[in-house]
User: What shape does this take?
Amino acid sequence: MTRQRRGSPYAPGDTDDTAAMLDAIGVEGVEDLFDIPDSVRFDGELGVEPRSERDARRLVERTLGRNDELTEFMGRGHYDHYVPALVDDLASRQEFLTSYTQYQPEVAQGFLQALFEYQSMLVELTGLGVANCSMYDAATALGEAATLSQRVRSVSGERILVPDQLREGKREVLAAYADGPDLSVETYPTAEGTVDVDGLADALDDDAAMVYAETPTVCGAIEPDLGAVGELADDHDALFVLGSDPVALALLERPADVGADVVVGEASALGAGTAYGMGTGLFATRAEYLRQVPGRLVGIGSDATDRRAFTLTLQTREQHIRKERATSNICTNQALMALRTAVHVATLGPDGLVGLAEDCVSLARDLATRLDEVSGLQAPVNDRHHFREFQAHTDQPAAAVASDLESEGFAVHVVGEHRIQVCVTDANEPAIDRFVDAMAEVA
Amino acid sequence: MSEDRDATDDHAPEAGTRYDQARWTDDGQYEPLLAEKDSTEVAVGDDAPLPDDLTRDSLELPDLSEPELARHYTRLSGMNYGVDSGPFPLGSCTMKYNPKFTERVAALPAAAVHPDRSATSVQGTLELQAELQGYLGRIGGMDAVTLQPPAGAAGEFTGIRIAAAYHEANGDDRTEVVIPDSAHGTNFATAAMAGFDVVELPSAEDGRVDIGALEAAVGEDTAALMLTNPNTLGLFERDIEEIAEIVHDAGGLLYYDGANLNALLGRARPGDMGFDVMHYNVHKTFATPHGGGGPGAGPVGVTEELAAFLPTPHVRQQADGSGYERYEPERSIGKVHGFSGNWLVLVRAFAYIARLGDAGLADASARAVLNANYLASRIDYEVPYGPFHHEFVASAGEQDAADAAKRMLDYGVHPPTTKWPEIVDEALMTEPTEAEGKGSLDDLAAAFDAVAAEDDATLDAAPERTAARRIDQVSAAREPRLSWHALEE
Assistant: This one.
C-alpha cells in the first residue's frame, strides 16, 4: 500500500508551519481566510475519489485503452510524421516545460531564442518577412488572417473567399472569427481538387477582402497555378492567404514568389503528430503588415551591456496592453509546440526536411498506383500531383469499405458516397503492404 | 514587525549567492543562433518527384549533428526560468508545480489518435472527454461543458459567442459587454473581437464591483457582464448575488472568467453564484505546464439554458448507456478550433483531477489562499485592500514596480506581475500558489524586503546576475529584427 496523504500531494503541508503561518496572519484556521458569503458557499461533494499516482495513471490507461488500435492512413490537416526522440527529450526539460510567457526576458533568454529560431525557420520556408511564434491551429490562424485582411485593406470590402472543398471545421472557425467584424465567408469552385481559376475570377470582385487557397489542398493535391491565384487577388486588391505546412513548404514553390500576403497552416505536422486534432497554428506575413500581426513576436534587442538579447516585442498590438483595440485576443498560444517544431526542423536539417517532403510526394504516388490496381478502386481520383494523401473512388459504398477496413485494423477517411481519402507518411509506411492487402479484401 | 521576522533573518538573501539564476556563464558569450553555427543551402527540385514549376529553388536551414543540437537547446534551457527552478509568483497566472506523471500520461500512444477517427473506434477518448466534462461541470457548478476552446481567451470568445447566440435566438439585439476596469485584457479584446462595444466599469473604493456604477452601466443593450471572482486584486466579490440579480434583471448574462478559479475549488462554484457561462483555465487550475506560453486549454461551462449553443462536436454518453457519441448541439455556435481543442492538455487535467479528488482539490485551494495571505502579511511593501484569496496586489510605493521586479531576479526568484491592475500604484501582483512551503515563502518575503529597502540606482542597474542584463525593449520595438534573415541585411 502506498500511503495516501489527504490533501494535495503537490502542496507542502507541514502542520507546524501551517500553524505558524495562521498565527502570523492572525486567524484561527484556513477556513477563516475564505471571504465567501454563506449563501454561496459550496458544501456538497464533487464526487471525485482521490487516487494514488499509480491509480490515476492506470485510470487514464484503462480508459484510453478502450480505443481500437488501428493503423491510421488519415490526414486532411492532421499528420503523423515520426518525431525524433531528441524533440521529446529537449521539450521535456523543465526550464522550457514549466516556464511562462516571457514577460521577464532576462530570465527567459533560452525560450525566446528558440522561438526566434522558429520564426526564422518560417521566414525561410515562406519567403515572407515576418512570422509570429504561434497561433492555436490552422483554423484559428485562418480566422486571424481574415480579420487582418480587413485591417490592412486599402478599400472596404467584406467578402472572404474560400475554396468550396475547405474542411468544414476550418470554415466554421473562420465564420466565428468573421462574425464580429461582419465579414461574409463565401466559396469559389475547385476542379480536380485544386482552384478552378476561371471560377475564382468569376467569384472575385472589389468587395473581396481576402482570397484563401491551400497547397497541398485538403485532398492532398498540389496547386498547379498559385501564381494565377495571386494575380487575381492582387487585381482586386484582396489579400492572398495561402494555407500549407512546413514539410510541404520545404519542397513547394515559395509562397512569397507566388504573391502570397499571408501564410497560415499547421506546424504540428512537425513535432506534434495528430494528437486528436491538437494543432500548432503557423502565421507569417509580409513585413509591411507587421503592426497588424496577431499574437506574439520575438525580436532581437540589446541589454545594458550592449550584448544581443531577445525579447517579446511590439506588444502594443496585444490584449494585455491594447485591450479592446488589440489585433487579437490571443494570450496563451502554442509556444511549446512551436519549440517542438523548431527542434524537429533542426534535427532534420535542410536535406532531411526536403527529403521528407519528397517522400510525401513519392509515397502518395506509389500507394495510389498500387491501390489503383486493386479491383473496385480507382486512385487517385484527381489528375494532380499529390502530397501525402489522395482520394480514391470505391465501387462499393465508401462507408462500408471504411468500416470493413476498421475490422482489418486500418482507418481512412470517408469523403463521399463512393470516395475515400488515404494519407501515407513515414509513420505508416511500414504498414503499406498490409494496408494494400486489406484493401484488396474489402474493396 | 512580528516576532517571526527575527526568526527568519537567516533567510535574508544576498544577491548572487545561494540565489543564483541558472545561466550560460561563458564570459558573456551567448549561445549563437543555430543559423550562425552552421547552415546549409540545398538546391531543391533537381531530383524532386515534381515538375520544376511546382518546386522552390533552394532552402537554407541549420545543418547540425544531433549532439550539437542537444547542446544548443540544453544551453538555451539553462538560460530559462521555470516553476521547477524556483518560486514563480506571477499574479493571475497560477504558476503551480506541474506533476510529472501527467506528462507520462499525455504521452500514451492511445492519446495520439487522429481526430477524424470513427466514434466507435475511439470510445476511450470519448469516455475521457465525457468524464472530464463531468468533473469540470461539478467543479464549476455548471450543467454542460465543452472542451473545445484551446486557451482561456478562446474560452472567453466561445462564451461570449454563446451569449450572443442566446440573445439572438431570443430576438434580442444587445450590443454591449460590461467589464470591470480591473479585468484581464483578454476580456476587452474578446468582447471587441466578437463584435461588441465594451463598457468599462470603474471599481469601487474597496476594489470590488461598484454596485451603483454597475446599475448605471447595464441596460437593454447589455449582452453580458464579464467578471473574475475572486477578482484580480484577490478579493472575493461578496455581493455576487446582487450583481447577478442586477445583470439578469437587465436581461444580460453573467460570464465568469476562470483565471482565478484556483482560489475556490470545492468551496464555491460560479454556477451557484449566478454565473451563466464560464471558462476554466485548466492549464492554471489543474496544473499542466504552461510551456513558455502554451499550449493551454479553456473549456467552457454553461447552464442548462445555454447548453444547446455549445460548439460542435460535443460528446455525451449514448442514451442506452452502451457507449459515447459525438453530436452537434441543436443551436450550436459552430466551432472555435479546427477539431476538439488542445487534447493532450485536457488529458493532463483529467489525470490531475483524478489524482487529487475532492479532498486534494479543496486542499490545493486552501493552501493557495493560506500562502497568499501569509506572504501578504510578511512583506514590507504596502498591501492595500483585503482579505485576499489566492493572490494580492502590493504597491511598490515610491519605487518603480518594473524596476523592483528586475531587482527581484537578482535574488533568484521570478517577480510578480507588475503595474497591473492599474488601480494600485506601482502594482506588484503576487500569487504564490499552493506549491510553496513556509520556508520558500519566507525566502520570497526576504527577497521582496531586500528589494524594498534598496535605492533607485540599484533597481535601475538590475538585473545583474541573470543571463542577460536589462533589455532595452523600446529600441527592440523601434527597429524590429524578428528573424535571422533580418540580421543579414
